[in-house]
TrEMBL record:
InterPro entries: GcrA. Residues 38-137 are annotated as: Disordered. It comes from Endobacter medicaginis. It comes from the Bacteria. Residues 66-84, 103-112 have a biased composition (Low complexity). This is GcrA cell cycle regulator. Residues 113-137 have a biased composition (Basic and acidic residues).
Length: 191
């Protein structure tokens, strides 16, 4: 909103007449908040609150005396607890409860057969950095000239993009651009 001298004078006049900020806003074609903000910046006199109070004021409530702060009773001193002695191990009641595990002795390291030597897979470094950069540039050029309309369900093997030649300045081919760019008026007629 552009506040000209004329609009400021009109605001001051309506303010002096005692109109509400909402009414001033309606008459001037601006929001109530714009009126409030400009009136504040112009330091116009404060308005009475629009909140209606009860016609008869309430009698003041009698002050209830608060109970005096009560100090907590002192806690009796607690004697330290004596620790229990650790339990002594009990001898087994019978030999039938004991299970022994038998293991075969491990062969010493020098007696073990050496592992079969295996040939390592040949290292494939993949395309060189220059080739990767060329591929990226080619994809970006293709992206600029091929339709980006998605076909199929994303995340499935059949998902792809249209790929037809695009309309200049648009990311889609003629057919998909007609679907993507529909005027609001046309949308209302379709619905």
């Amino acid at each position: 909103m552009e506040w000209t001298e004329e609009t400021i004078q009109r605001l001051r006049a309506l303010w002096q007449e005692g109109h509400s900020t909402a009414e001033i806003g309606r008459r001037m074609g601006i929001s109530k908040n714009a009126v409030v903000g400009k009136a504040h910046r112009l330091e116009l006199p404060a308005r009475p609150s629009p909140i209606r109070r009860e016609s008869t004021p309430r009698p003041p409530r009698p002050a209830t005396p608060r109970p005096a702060a009560v100090k907590p009773a002192p806690r009796p001193a607690v004697a330290p607890v004596a620790e229990r002695p650790a339990p002594r191990p009990q001898p087994a009641s019978s030999a039938s409860n004991v299970v022994t595990m038998l293991r075969a002795p491990a062969a010493p390291a020098e007696n073990r057969a050496p592992a079969e030597p295996r040939r390592a897979d040949p290292f494939d470094p993949g395309p060189r950095a220059e080739e990767r950069a060329e591929a990226r540039a080619e994809r970006s050029v293709r992206r600029l000239t091929s339709c980006c309309w998605p076909l199929g369900e994303p995340g499935t093997r059949s998902f792809r993009f249209c790929g037809c030649e695009t309309v200049p300045g648009k990311p889609y081919c003629l057919e998909h651009a007609q679907l993507a760019y529909v005027r609001i008026k046309d949308r209302r007629e379709i619905a």
